[in-house]
Amino acid sequence: MPGGSLGVSGANFIIATINQLIPKFDHVVAVRDWHPPGHVSFASTHGKRTGETIKIGSVEQILWPDHCLQDTRGAQLADGLQTEKIEAVFNKGTDPLVDSYSAFFDSNHHRSTGLDDFLREHKLKEIYFVGVATDYCILYSVLDALKLGYHVTVILDACRAINRRLGDENRSIDAMKDKGAKIMTAEEFLKD
Ligand SMILES: [Zn+2]
Question: How does pLDDT run across 78-117, given as a tens digit for each residue?
Fold first, then answer.
């Protein structure tokens, strides 16, 4: 949220939209960044500046400000979000040594968050994504969901992007569409 250590511009404006969407779904789950102190994605861990990148194995890791620390306010679900219908909350980025943009797996694709198991147990095949950030966590979650065989829709105006580089949002939308994700607005969804 804006004002947080890794605030995404305009993210406060998506809460009301998400609250309008929630009652339309049979199942609602949340995924949150849940980092231990000294996490590999924090610039401070490496004595480097935010926005610099380092190589971890073959993975290029962007370094972020300390954010979403376990059991702190920064890791809580956003103020004002309707949480009554949220059946399960999945944590990601819990391994100090591996980052996780995707809601399904860490960046090494070793550790699962449990989201895929939950969806399979409930025989759910269709996923609608909302939240932050379009060009990181939404993008990688959507690509994993498509690889896992889910039907995926992104409700774009219920998401916000970081746009670290100019055009990141549009590039991420193209990449998601290219792999088979549907993109729509909340208004389009709600009128059906
Ligand atoms: Zn993170």
Answer: 999 999 999 999 999 999 999 999 999 998 888 899 999 9
Centroid of ligand 1 to alpha carbon of 191 (angstroms): 34
To the question of pTM greater than 0.90 for the whole model, the response is: yes
Task: Specify the CATH number for the domain of residue 31.
Answer: 3.40.50.850
The answer to whether residue 60 sits within a structural domain is: no
Instruction: Read off the pLDDT of each residue in 119-144 and give the average, rounded to a whole number.
Output: 98
Q: Which residue, among 65, 118, 66, 64, has the nearest Cα to 91 in the 3D structure? A: 118
Instruction: Look up the domain containing 27 and give its range.
Output: 11-36+67-191
Ligand 1 centroid to Cα of residue 99, in Å, is 7
Distance 41 CA to ligand 1 centre (A): 7
CA of 140 to the centre of ligand 1 (A): 13
Beta-strand runs (E) in 59-146: 59-62, 86-92, 126-132
